[in-house]
Amino acid sequence: MGIAALITWILTALGGSLMLAKWVQGGGHRKPSSTRLSPPIILGHFALAAVGLVLWIIYLAADSNPIGWIAFVLLVPVALLGFAMLIRWIPTYQASRNPAAVGAGSYSPGPDGPMPGEGAAPPERHFPVAVVGGHGVLAVVTVVLVLLTNLGIGGS
Description:
Elements lengths: L1 H24 L13 H24 L2 H32 L2 H5 L25 H23 L5
Helix pairs in contact: 1-2, 1-5, 2-3, 3-5
């Protein structure tokens, strides 16, 4: 089960890396005011997930239970940050599905008012919905598999 968790974690990381690349490509890291996803949240999510993945690989190689549990504990803030980003991404996705709002330049990021530059779209607007959904589903599966592996359920 530990190897299955590794595979789902790697697939999750691939989807996350694609979204991070699109966000960076769209200038989210250079123009924080143009995005609903703040750089500290995105980069923190990415860094914690990457450290957890490295620890999981070490756990599998060394079969060290404390390292496996540390990897699992790191997944908790990773999941919370991911969920927070999903909640902030949904209005961006909904706005992109409304051609009148996008075409008319009336995009608004939410309670903070309109974005600088009328009609400016945040970089996360270009996240493929299938990648967002797949990333989330694989993340949940990864958390469950890591927990079950650490509990010794299902073999490793």
